[in-house]
Specification:
By secondary structure, the chain is α/β, with parallel strands linked by helices. It folds into two domains: about 230 residues, 3-Layer(aba) Sandwich (Aspartate Aminotransferase, domain 2), CATH 3.40.640.10; about 130 residues, Aspartate Aminotransferase, domain 1. The protein is built from twelve helices and 15 strands. The strands form four sheets. Strands 2-10-9-6-5-3-4 form a seven-stranded mixed sheet, with helices on both faces. It has a three-stranded antiparallel sheet with strand order 8-7-12, with no helix packed on it. A three-stranded antiparallel sheet has the order 11-13-15. Helix 4 links the parallel strand 3 and strand 4. The longest helix is centred in the last third of the chain and has 19 residues. This is Aminotransferase. Pfam families: DegT_DnrJ_EryC1. Keywords: Aminotransferase, Pyridoxal phosphate, Transferase. GO terms for molecular function: transaminase activity. Belongs to the DegT/DnrJ/EryC1 family.
């Protein structure tokens, strides 16, 4: 194991020779971007695979989040989670919106619906939750609150590709859902993203916004951005889609192996498997209780010394970063569960090509650390 590093996430790559015909077709068509044939094919293929009505592809998930907020003309304050990757809140700042942080549920680590109502003010217009680690938010309670107060709901579903909740796609909840297709995600186009839309009218507005606002060659309808996905990335997505079921099966097998070894290890907690959910094993976080003999950071360093690269997702909290920590909602007292999780979490490697004997070795090392 010393010859090669074990990463927390790695892209699942199809055989190179299978990509060559796609490259040849792009070369022959001379269409490199701007809603080309592969782009159109991937939008249709992903809509069918994910079980959603409309899907708009983007160059990356961050631009998709920024555009989703513009699509719904969100203003004022947006209630969101501090326990996420920074782009969740950054997308609000890019739209000159004020993030209002609410604590997470101590079990699911998703936005706690019980804390949302007390954070609503006359300036609140939307809720931006995250399906953390691909586990569903309490979508029913969040929607009830949104309906009572007339708020929009945009889900950051960067981790939730292919997740099924109560027999249908989790991405169908909320006004919009936003996917990331970054190289580290379950399904990737190296760089990419998407907005799940409820209807063609919404998708048409999104199409204007991601293409500089152009409605036709001479008409600009909005102050849009360049968020288009290239033909190269779309072609890679079409090829990746052929292997997605096999990749998910391997991920689930690895997750089951981890759970078999670690579920009873003193000082380590695992997230429960959500009810009514078919997950995607996007991440495998573990949490260190005080009774574990080493700190989380000491375990991180020891793994790194063995060329096993774990990640402290999500540490530090968004709310502790310089551009956010001065906000009243960012105080440690307001976010006890999120701060606790951020200080205890370590995501172990999980990706389709991770061999089970390497999983066993990671678990053996944790056993050694626990006997320290």
């Amino acid at each position: 194991m010393a010859d090669s590093k074990i990463f927390v996430t790695q892209p699942a790559l199809p055989p190179l020779e299978e990509f060559i015909p796609y490259l040849q077709e792009i070369w022959d068509s001379k269409i490199l971007t701007n809603n080309g044939p592969f782009h159109k094919q991937l939008e249709v293929a992903l809509s069918q695979y994910l079980g959603v009505d409309q899907l708009a592809l983007f160059a990356n998930g961050t631009i998709a989040l920024v555009t989703a907020l513009q699509t719904l003309r969100i203003t004022g304050e947006v209630i969101t989670t501090p326990y996420s990757f920074v782009c969740t809140s950054h997308s609000l700042l890019w739209n000159e919106l004020k993030p209002v942080f609410v604590d997470v549920d101590p079990v699911t680590l998703n936005l706690d619906p019980a804390r949302i109502e007390e954070a609503i003010t006359p300036r609140t217009t939307a809720i931006l939750p995250v399906h953390c680690y691909g586990n569903p938010c309490d979508v029913e309670k969040i929607q009830r609150i949104a309906d009572i107060y007339g708020l929009r709901v945009i889900y950051d579903a960067a981790h939730a590709f292919g997740v099924q909740y109560k027999g249908e796609s989790l991405l169908r909840h909320g006004d919009l859902s936003v996917l990331s297709m970054h190289a580290t995600k379950v399904f990737n186009t190296f760089e990419g993203g998407a907005i799940i839309c409820p209807d063609k009218t919404t998708k048409e507005r999104i199409g204007f916004l991601k293409n500089f606002g152009f409605a036709d060659e001479v008409t600009v309808t909005a102050s849009g951005i360049n968020g288009k996905m290239s033909e190269f990335n779309a072609a890679l997505g079409l090829l990746q889609l052929k292997y997605i079921e096999a990749a998910l099966a391997k991920r689930r097998l690895i997750e089951a192996r981890y759970r078999l070894y670690l579920s009873d290890m003193p000082g380590i907690r695992l997230l429960p498997i959500p009810d009514d959910t078919v997950g995607n094993s996007a991440y495998f976080p573990i949490f260190f209780d005080p009774e574990f003999p080493l700190s989380r950071d000491a375990v991180y360093d020891r793994f790194k010394a063995q060329d096993i690269l774990t990640r402290r997702y999500f540490y530090p909290l968004i709310s502790s970063m310089p551009m956010y920590r001065g906000m009243p909602s960012a105080s440690v007292q307001n976010l006890p569960n999120a701060n606790k999780a951020a200080n205890e979490v370590l995501c172990l490697p999980i990706y389709p090509d991770l061999a089970l004997d390497q999983v066993d070795r990671i678990c053996e090392l944790l056993t050694e650390f626990s006997n320290h």
